[in-house]
Each structure stands twice: as C-alpha cells, then as structure tokens.
Specification:
Beta-Lactamase, Phosphatase 2c, domain 1, 13 helices, Sigma-B regulation protein RsbU (Phosphoserine phosphatase), EC 3.1.3.3, Bact_Sigma-Reg, hydrolase, PPM-type_phosphatase-like_dom
C-alpha cells in the first residue's frame, strides 16, 4: 500500500519533532508558525518584510538582510542597499559560488576566514561586513539560487544547533516561496499592464469613433456612401466629408501609420488641422492647404509617424473636382466606362517638413463615379495568400451598374468578400464612393 504524501504542516511537524534538540522545544510553536507562513504566502512583500521580522524575533537576531537575484546579479533589498553603498553580488562572485555549492547556512567571520572568503573580493568582504553578517542563508528554488540572507546575533551570542537546523529548513521554504511570489507578482504586473493597454484601446476607439462622420453631408448633385472596417480593435484608417462656408464639398481618406492611441491622436490632429485650414485658406489653392497640413503634422508627430492621404474638393458651381494625392493609393474615376487613376500630388504627410505638392482639376459630370479606398481593400487576401490587388477593385468598379453610391459600395464589398472567401484580413478597410447624379 502506497503512503499518502505528507501535507506541508505534517512535514514541518515531523521536521521539528525529529530535528530540534530539547533546548529548542520552547520555540517549537514559533518555528512551526514561521515555516507554515513562509510556505503559504504568495506575497513578495511579506517574504521580504513580515517573515524576516518574525524570524528575527524568534532567533533574537540583531540583523537580517535579504538579497535577491535580478538577472545574473544578487541585489540588496530594503535598508541593505544603503548599508552596502549599492554594491551587488555578481553570479561569479566567491560568495554566490559558495552558496550555490554548499546549499546550506555558511558562517562568515573575519577572525578565522574560510577558504571561500580568501577568494572573495575586497568589495564582497566590505559589503558583508557592512551588513553585519555572521551567517549566510541560501534561498534555493527549483530554478537555482533565488537569493540569500545575512544574519547576525548580538555580540557574544551564537547560533545554536537547533536554530541552524531550523534555518536550513527555512532556506528551502524561502527559495520556493520567493519563486512562487515572484511568479504571482509577474502575473499581477502583466494583468495591470493589460488593463492599461485595454484602457488605452478603449480611449483610442472612442476617439476614432468620434472622428468618423456619423452622417454624410448633403450636396445637390452628389450621392455619397462610405464603409470602414478595422482589422484590430483600433485601426489607422480615417475618412471625412464636410462642407466649407463657400459650399465646397471636401472629401478626405487617409491611412495613419501604426495602431493604438498614438495613431488615434495623430488622426485627431489630422482631422482638426485639415478642417481648420480649409476655413482659413478661403482663397488659397488646395496645394497650399496640403503643404501647411504636412508641416503641422511634421511638427506634431515623431519621425516614425506619417500618413498617406488623398484630398478632394468638389465645386458645385463649376462641377469640378480638385484633388491632391499625398502618397495614397490612386482613387479611381469612372467616366463613360473609362477609369482614370488619380495620382497627382506628392509624398506622404509628416515625413518632410518642406514637401511640395501638385493639384489637378477634373470635370465631374453626371454619371461619373469616384472610388476612394485604402490599401486594406486592394491588399485583401484569400485562403491561398493571394492579394485582390488594384486589378480586382478595378474589375469590380467597371462591372457595377448600381443605382446609388451605397449600392456601389455594397457591390464592391460583395466582389471582395467573394474573393477572400472568409479569410481573416490583417489591415483596415476603408471605401468611399462619390457619384454625380
């Protein structure tokens, strides 16, 4: 018949009954309580503060200092930092090698030094002396030496045999306890970090949702529709339509680099700046607006942040479209069954402070359709990893015969989804259609 494994409490009781000498029986309950507490606590602070305080009281210690492993070094904790003047014990130091080899309490005395002390550096000896060390206790865990403690008794007092046996058992409990507590702390910190990231994502999502138009403006002779789908919780695409004081319809589609709160804030800057510039530059050409926008974005963002953008201004009186393409995917203008790629412009926004741009003005006649999109549309993939590409979008634009802009958007998406066949996409998708009625 196989014996049942002993519980932690029974193991400790057996240890105390077998190992303690009669002179130690007076402290048996105290020792048992300490070992149980060390074995059960999941708090790193308790292991570093509360438990040492109880151990010091039980053994009548004059000092108890803990050093923990951080990467490959062993670093003093708490008040021990000041006593050692910031000295840390490298893994290759004689002190650490001794503790790893012996795995049991090791005495430290300058009067009759052991062999390992003769190999120790002067900085090690000075640090141990500053800590008032008389005894070094290793904290051995499942993954090696997790740390160690220096202990001392008042002058003239010595560690008794039963106390050394207790400390030997304590060193194992502390090693495993420190491992567990460090793991619990790491999980807790990761939970806090994830909560912070989630809060940032929620904020970025809220910012983004407020930036996208809740309804599209009404302009005589123009039918418009748009769709946006983020690949992640917070995307980098942005579109906007608004009307200036002169009745001009402004239309913009952009793709901001990166994801998350930083991209959402850059998107907010882009939107607010463009709207403000269009109000103030009442008679200036579209290129002047985009050049000012580029300078503002360059000054407001880091070197790794930029945006591709295409900006259209429709003049109802002249029935024309004036546009600038700043490094964006060329929009497609369908007129009399012919498609024109609109590429006139310049570099992406935010990278070069003095970039210059060109604009182009086109007739926008009844029946014409303008399709603006981001690269998530043309870079959509199927199960084989093949991309839809511009040719796929172009074919969808040419074959559509939709009665409205909204129907045109749905027809294009239907063709895209038929190609992708349910394959998850990795980039945001924005599609905007303007049609002259």
């Amino acid at each position: 018949m196989t014996d049942r494994p002993l519980s932690l409490k029974k193991k400790i009781a057996r240890f105390l009954n077998e190992k303690l000498t009669p002179s130690g029986y007076a402290s048996r309950d105290q020792f048992e309580e300490i070992l149980l507490e060390v074995g059960r606590t999941l708090s790193l602070d308790e292991l570093l503060v509360t438990c040492p305080r109880k151990i010091s009281s039980a053994l009548h210690l004059s000092s108890f200092h803990i050093l923990l492993r951080e990467d490959s070094d062993y670093v003093p904790q708490g008040t021990a930092r000041d006593l050692t003047s910031g000295f840390i014990f490298p893994a290759s130091s004689a002190t650490i090698l001794r503790l790893k080899r012996e795995r049991r309490p090791s005495p430290f005395t300058k009067q009759t030094p052991d062999a390992w002390q003769l190999l120790a550096s002067s900085h090690e000896i000075a640090a141990l002396d500053a800590l008032g060390a008389q005894l070094l206790i290793p904290f051995e865990g499942r993954t090696g030496l997790r740390g160690f403690a220096t202990l001392a008794k008042p002058e003239g007092k010595h560690f008794l045999r039963h106390e050394l046996r207790f400390l030997r058992e304590l060193s194992q409990q502390m090693g495993r306890g420190l491992e567990t507590a460090r793991h619990v702390k790491s999980l807790s910190e990761e939970a806090v970090r994830r909560a912070k990231v989630n809060r940032e994502l929620d904020l970025a999502r809220e910012v983004q949702e407020r930036l996208l138009p809740q309804s599209l403006p009404t302009v005589p002779g123009i039918d418009s529709a748009a769709t946006y789908k983020s690949a992640d919780e917070v995307g980098g695409d942005y579109y906007d339509l608004f009307i200036t004081w002169k009745g001009l319809l402004c239309c913009v589609v952009a793709d901001v680099s990166g994801k998350g709160i930083a991209s959402a804030l850059l998107m907010a800057t882009l939107r607010a700046s463009l709207r403000s510039l269009m109000i103030n530059h009442r008679e200036d050409p579209v290129t002047a607006v985009i050049e000012d926008l580029n300078r503002l974005l360059y000054e407001a963002s880091s070197a790794s942040r930029y945006a591709t953008l295409v900006f259209f201004v429709y003049d109802p009186s002249a029935q024309t479209l004036t546009y600038v393409n700043a490094g964006h995917n060329p929009p497609l203008l369908l007129s009399d069954s012919q498609v024109t790629r609109l590429e006139c412009g310049g570099p992406v926004l935010g990278l070069l402070p003095d970039a210059t741009y060109e604009e182009q003005t086109l007739a926008f006649n009844p029946g014409d359709t303008l399709t603006i999109y981001t690269d998530g549309i043309t870079e959509a993939i199927n199960s084989r990893g093949a991309e839809w590409e511009e040719q796929g979008l172009l074919a969808a634009v040419l074959k559509q015969n939709s009665p409205s802009a909204a129907a045109a958007v749905q027809d294009i998406l239907f063709s895209l989804h038929a190609f992708a066949s349910g394959t998850p996409q990795v980039d945001d998708m924005t599609l905007l259609v303007l049609r002259r009625t």
